[in-house]
């Protein structure tokens, strides 16, 4: 009898836990026109779309080079240490000297300007974006796609994939019209002076940007913070997003965290693909603890670290490049570059230069402080989306989840691909592989909609 009672209690407790963790909350009431500009909303808003040109002017270049030349002497790495303690300062010296002597500011600006750039005000903030329309025959369908980046980055991250996305591809009857946006406070987009601009609100702004440009239905490709904003878009605005391609797919539902820990009991049963990428959890959490110091600083005191980074281009370069390096290959800490040489150094310095020119390290870093402490985020994150989704998982992505967890959030995961190479900045690191997967995935999205 006691065994029967105990068994009943266990069953009921299990049922309660499952019900609690799988419960889907009601969507919160959200103001989709919340004002993020300075002061109060004007009676008549500026809805104009203005051409924009990137310029690295002589005054900025001269000032930057002077600051780099007058930098203080760096502390040498410890004996036998390469990048295990962070940025290797011997290697940093080489990069900074290259930035001063060989990096061609004017040529790099010209390369960025080979695409049409624009700005428009959305909810009070001047947002910058690249908009490229393909030149194709009438028998090729043109599909709009929104590209969203993360930190530390900007729409510059997509300059290698834009030409491939906008060029007809053998075997496909469609091509893409690309809108690559700078998130607010990143790149050439204006930051807010109001608290609360989190990934959920950014997702709303990106949807409003697409509506401003005349797109009611479109595809989205995103990673990092851009993928957080895009995921919220698929949840709140499924009528707008035709398909979502993500190179950092994550489910933040309560049930997903429970399943993550349950999976540690039998990793091979729950993920026959790559269980070693997340299990044992001790190894995974050790890696996260080792590399998340910047995350904690920016989540708590972004303005403090921002003072140093805004004032010193050498400090800014070291801080940004060290994170770019580790996210490109975390197995190369025993090298002076720490993973940075998996990318073209000019692409890396473009990213640092853009951040320096726009003085946006603080406004971009604040997203970490805003990204976790708003109730609406956890509510929306716990709501599944029916938007067809494709996941591409590169070896050195910051975080990995198996498909059985991803489906908690993305109910229609129509494609999932894993690679034993590549990293976090996929559009710069492995552009062709990323674009090939986008084409295949969009074809799957089209099939999905045709079945309905």
TrEMBL record:
Keywords, sorted A to Z: Aromatic hydrocarbons catabolism, Endoplasmic reticulum, Hydrolase, Membrane, Signal
Topology of this chain in the membrane: Single-pass membrane protein
The active site of this protein is located at: 224 (nucleophile), 368 (proton donor), 424 (proton acceptor)
Q: Where in the cell is it found?
A: Endoplasmic reticulum membrane; Microsome membrane
Instruction: List cellular component terms (GO).
Output: endoplasmic reticulum membrane
Enzyme class name: hydrolase
State where it is primarily located: endoplasmic reticulum
Q: Which residue ranges does the record assign to the Epoxide hydrolase N-terminal domain? A: 49-158
Q: Which reaction does it catalyse?
A: cis-stilbene oxide + H2O = (1R,2R)-hydrobenzoin; 1-(4-methoxyphenyl)-N-methyl-N-[(3-methyloxetan-3-yl)methyl]methanamine + H2O = 2-{[(4-methoxybenzyl)(methyl)amino]methyl}-2-methylpropane-1,3-diol
Give GO terms for biological process: epoxide metabolic process
Q: What is its EC number?
A: 3.3.2.9
| Gene Ontology MF terms in the entry | cis-stilbene-oxide hydrolase activity
Top-level taxon in the UniProt lineage: Eukaryota
Cleaved signal peptide residues = 1-15
**Which SUPFAM superfamilies does this entry report, sorted A to Z?**
alpha/beta-Hydrolases
Q: Which family does it belong to?
A: Belongs to the peptidase S33 family.
Role according to the record: Catalyzes juvenile hormone hydrolysis.
Name of the featured protein: Epoxide hydrolase
The beginning of the lineage is: Eukaryota, Metazoa, Ecdysozoa, Arthropoda, Hexapoda
Gene, per the UniProt record: HaOG211263
């Amino acid at each position: 009898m006691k065994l029967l009672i105990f068994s009943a209690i266990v069953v009921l407790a299990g049922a309660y836990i499952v019900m609690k963790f799988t419960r889907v909350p009601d969507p919160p009431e959200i103001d989709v026109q919340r004002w993020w500009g300075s002061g109060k909303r004007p009676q008549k808003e500026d809805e104009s779309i203005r051409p924009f040109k990137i310029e690295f002017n002589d005054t900025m270049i001269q000032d930057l080079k002077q600051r780099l030349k007058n930098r203080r002497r760096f502390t040498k790495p410890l004996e036998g240490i390469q990048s295990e303690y962070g940025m290797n300062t011997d290697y940093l010296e080489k990069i900074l000297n290259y930035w001063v002597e060989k990096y061609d500011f004017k040529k790099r600006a010209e390369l960025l300007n080979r695409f049409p750039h624009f700005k428009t005000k959305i909810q009070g903030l001047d947002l910058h974006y690249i908009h490229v329309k393909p030149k194709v025959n009438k028998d090729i369908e043109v599909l709009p796609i929104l590209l969203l980046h993360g930190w530390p980055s900007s729409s510059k991250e997509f300059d290698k994939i834009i030409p491939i996305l906008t060029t007809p591809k053998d075997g496909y009857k469609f091509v893409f019209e690309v809108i690559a946006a700078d998130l607010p406070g990143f790149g050439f987009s204006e930051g807010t002076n109001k608290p609360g601009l989190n990934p959920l609100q950014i997702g709303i702004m990106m949807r409003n940007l697409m509506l401003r440009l005349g797109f009611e239905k479109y595809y989205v490709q995103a990673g990092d913070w851009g993928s957080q904003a895009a995921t919220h878009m698929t949840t709140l605005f499924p009528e707008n997003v035709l398909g979502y391609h993500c190179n950092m797919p994550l489910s933040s539902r309560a049930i997903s965290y429970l399943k993550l820990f349950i999976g540690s009991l039998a990793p091979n049963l729950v993920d026959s693909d790559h269980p070693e990428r997340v299990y044992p959890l001790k190894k995974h959490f050790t890696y996260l603890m080792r590399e998340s110091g910047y995350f904690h600083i920016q989540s708590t005191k972004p303005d403090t670290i921002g003072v140093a980074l805004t004032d010193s281009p050498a400090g800014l370069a070291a801080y940004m490049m060290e994170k770019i390096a580790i996210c490109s290959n975390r197995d190369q800490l025993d090298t002076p570059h720490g993973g940075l040489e998996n990318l073209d150094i000019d692409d890396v310095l473009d990213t640092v230069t853009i951040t320096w020119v726009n003085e946006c390290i603080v406004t971009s870093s604040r997203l970490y402080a805003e990204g976790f402490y708003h109730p609406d985020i956890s509510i929306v994150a716990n709501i599944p989306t029916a938007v067809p989704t494709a996941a591409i998982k590169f070896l050195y992505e910051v975080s990995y989840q198996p498909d059985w967890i991803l489906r908690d959030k993305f109910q229609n995961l129509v494609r999932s691909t894993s690679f034993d190479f590549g990293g976090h900045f996929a559009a710069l690191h492995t552009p062709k592989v990323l674009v090939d997967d986008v084409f295949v995935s969009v074809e799957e999205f089209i099939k999905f909609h045709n079945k309905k």
